[in-house]
Design brief:
Elements: H1 2-22, H2 24-70, H3 72-99
Length: 100
């Protein structure tokens, strides 16, 4: 039984491949069916993809908020240090301009 199936496959498959190579109309039908299937899949997945995108956006926002909440004091200290550096630099520039 298995030998018969393999024999039929080895006879039919090469013939189908040869027909597909020569027949533009048959290739067009296969491509058309493939495109219709792909379109159907994309239509079915559209809502899922939107949900995934929304979930990823929510995760990104919550992650950033948690990070800022956890490091609020450090961020304030960094901002103060940066402001102090800017003040010092502006004073130095004022002194240099007075000397010139």
């Amino acid at each position: 039984m298995n030998d018969t199936i393999f024999t039929i496959m080895f006879m039919v498959v090469p013939i189908l491949v040869f027909i597909l190579i020569l027949s533009l109309k048959l290739r067009g039908k296969f491509r058309s069916r493939h495109l219709k299937a792909t379109k159907y899949i994309m239509d079915e997945l559209k809502d899922d993809l939107i949900d995934i995108g929304t979930t990823m956006g929510d995760i990104a926002v919550k992650t950033k908020k948690n990070m800022l909440d956890q490091h609020e004091d450090d961020l304030k200290n960094m901002a103060n240090k940066q402001a102090n550096i800017v003040k010092v630099l502006s004073k130095l520039q004022q002194r240099q301009s007075k000397m010139d």
